[in-house]
Design brief:
single chain, 327 residues, alpha/beta, Rossmann fold, seven-stranded parallel sheet, four-stranded mixed sheet
């Protein structure tokens, strides 16, 4: 089979492209700069110069594919410049799905996120949870608009699309702010640990498997949360300490102090650039819970993500090797 993967140069998209190749499928992707996809090209991925914000550039790579995986997204948290978020996450998604409809592609999988529900305030979300009225994080807001106002309406109109919703994705080769957090932990440079933050953690390889299961077994018009085990950030770091022997540094901070710090960093950030890990938006995101149930995906897709303890051990061992650390 021949599949298009948008976001093939990204963390999850790159792993998915490689797994599809391993299963003897043909893979096509688009890249604004094909030179950045040289490693994929060397493996046999067909690279087209293109950009999801330019609908016309998608026609050639999407023509003749048997299915598509739309993963490309703007996913920064704590960034000063968020101007591209709406264009990529909302307009880009609209472009991909409209082209899918125009070309009559038989089935597609769109990568949404558990973050479309924003802060769940300790409640476990499921696929029926509604879109909240406000958001504290621009990534969450724009992905929610793409999910609720672009993808779902087109699915109701008959687009043969399945939505998957990862939670906190981790694993070797991560490029997100989570990796920065784990590296600061390993270097004993973590300034604080939120006692509020909780996530539904899933290893990247399980997320890739969830995408493939969604294409093979998912029902068109349905959404599936493919998040994993629910753990607080503090509990995840405690597991990390048991695995590595590296003690967790940093002050434990609860909701009241995080709220004060968020306001302070908001004022400071207007004057001087702050690292993403200390930006007010980042502090808001760790003063929240992003948790959801994968029961539907388990029942209908056969999805079975590994426990956090196992996946985190692999990830930290990888990072420690890169840092030249022993246990």
């Amino acid at each position: 089979m021949r599949y298009l993967v948008t976001g093939g140069t990204g963390f999850i998209g790159g792993k998915l492209a490689r797994e599809l190749l391993r299963r003897d499928h043909q893979v096509v992707t688009v890249a604004r700069n094909p030179d950045n996809a040289a490693d994929l090209a060397a493996l046999g991925v067909e690279i087209h110069k293109g950009d999801i914000t330019d609908k016309n550039s998608l026609r050639a790579p999407m023509t003749g594919v048997d299915g598509l995986f739309h993963l490309a997204a703007w996913y920064k948290v704590g960034a000063r410049d968020t101007r591209m978020a709406y264009d990529i996450n909302v307009n880009g998604t609209r472009n991909v799905l409209e082209m899918m409809r125009e070309l009559g592609i038989p089935k597609g999988v769109y990568t949404s996120t558990l973050a479309i529900y924003g802060d769940t305030h300790g409640r476990v979300a499921d696929e029926s949870t509604p879109m909240p009225e406000t958001f504290d994080v621009e990534y969450d807001r724009t992905k929610a608009l793409a999910h609720f106002e672009v993808a779902l309406p087109m699915m109701r109109e008959g687009l043969p699309l399945v939505i998957v919703q990862p939670g906190m994705v981790y694993g070797p080769d991560d490029t997100s702010i989570l990796r920065q957090t784990l590296l600061m932990y390993l270097r004993r440079q973590l300034p604080l640990v939120s006692t509020v933050a909780a996530y539904a953690w899933a290893h990247v390889d399980d997320i890739v498997e969830g995408h493939i299961l969604a294409l093979d077994k998912g029902k068109s018009g349905e959404s599936y949360i493919i998040a994993g085990e629910i753990k607080s950030l503090a509990d995840a770091l405690a597991l990390a300490e048991q695995t590595t022997g590296v003690p967790v540094s940093g002050m434990r901070v609860g909701a009241p102090l995080l709220t004060i710090m968020t306001g302070l960093m908001s004022m400071v950030g207007r004057v001087i650039p702050l690292p993403e890990t200390m930006a007010s938006e980042t502090l808001r995101s760790i003063n929240a819970t992003y948790i959801g149930s994968n029961a539907k995906a388990r029942q209908e897709l056969g999805y079975s993500p590994r426990p956090l303890e196992i996946g985190l051990r692999e990830t930290l061992t990888h990072e420690m090797r890169l840092l030249g650390m022993g246990r």
